[in-house]
Amino acid sequence: MNGLLIINKPSGITSHDVVNVVRRLANTQRVGHTGTLDPLATGVLVVLVGAATRLAQFIDDNDKAYRAVVRLGETTTTDDAAGDIVERHPVTVGRAEVEAALASFRGTILQVPPMHSAIKIGGQKLYKLAHRGKAIERAPRPVTIHRLEMAAWTPPDVTLEVVCSAGTYIRSLARDLGQTLGCGAHLTALTRTAAGRFTLSQSHTLETLRALAEAGRLTEVLLPPQAALAGLPTITLTVEQERAARHGQTFPLAVATETAMLQAQNAAGQLVAVLIPVEAGGWRPKLVFPAGA
């Protein structure tokens, strides 16, 4: 079994918990996910099965979309509802002030990741340090907020629609919005509505996957490996070109030289390789997909 499962992660479990469920259902250890979701969060989690796990690099950097509920007036140890409340302040701002504050977060900004995150500093994950009561300085990182709109204003809560670059922490966005407004804030609910081209409407619950697996029909919702490469132009190789690609060799192709990468398939429509250009019009494999997978 090789391909992608688009899962609607429930709240209360980790992304790794979802991977473990899929391992049991698909009866394989070769399962991974892209774009970690916090235990509190729900929504689109892309899970790769079998040989498709090798394609994670082509999904990890995709933009993400979220629907987030931010509570003004309270800050927590984790910047979300999973943490302890450390400060409370009266919320005196109105819708207009919140709308104005949102404008400062659109575009490319510098964001300090939360202490409770999986980012490694000095070889150690931040959340493990946080669990030991340690807090260390985190360097701000550039992220891009492509879209940030208010979807609902029910004070002290504000619901936001966010489209952002990979690596953006919505918890940090909530925290920073509260600081800008002078009342503090934290994230109380988060749903990822899209990861790249994969949307919530395409996703399946774990209950649905369990039922399909029990009926021997799990492959019905398994997307082909090529789904991970949907943004790349596709070329069909000849038998000789496929042989060269599988041996890691460089060979010529009559394609546009400005193309940075290609997904190459054989006449049967099976993924063979991801190709990159080299000198003199040649192409070589960046990644070779197993034959018959």
What attributes does this structure have?
single chain, 293 residues, alpha+beta, Pseudouridine synthase, Archaeosine Trna-guanine Transglycosylase, Chain: A, domain 4, nine-stranded mixed β-sheet, five-stranded mixed β-sheet, 35% strand
CATH T-level topology of the largest domain = Pseudouridine synthase
Which oligomerization state do the chains in this entry correspond to?
Answer: single chain
Helix and strand run: EHEEEEEHEEEHEEHEEHEHEEEE
Mean pLDDT: 91
Low-pLDDT parts are: none
Give me the secondary-structure category: alpha+beta
Number of strands: 18
CATH class of the largest domain: Alpha Beta
Q: Could you give the distance between the termini? A: 8 Å
Radius of gyration: 22 Å
By CATH's scheme, which homologous superfamily of the largest domain applies? Pseudouridine synthase
Give the number of helices.
6
Total count of domains: 3
Q: Please identify, by name, the CATH architecture of the largest domain.
A: 2-Layer Sandwich
What gross morphology would you assign?
Answer: globular
Architecture blueprint of SSEs:
Layout: E1 3-9, H1 15-26, E2 31-34, E3 42-49, E4 64-72, E5 74-76, E6 85-88, H2 95-103, E7 107-111, E8 120-121, E9 124-125, H3 126-131, E10 141-154, E11 157-164, H4 170-181, E12 185-195, E13 198-199, H5 206-214, E14 234-236, H6 239-246, E15 251-252, E16 262-265, E17 271-277, E18 282-288
Helix pairs in contact: 1-5
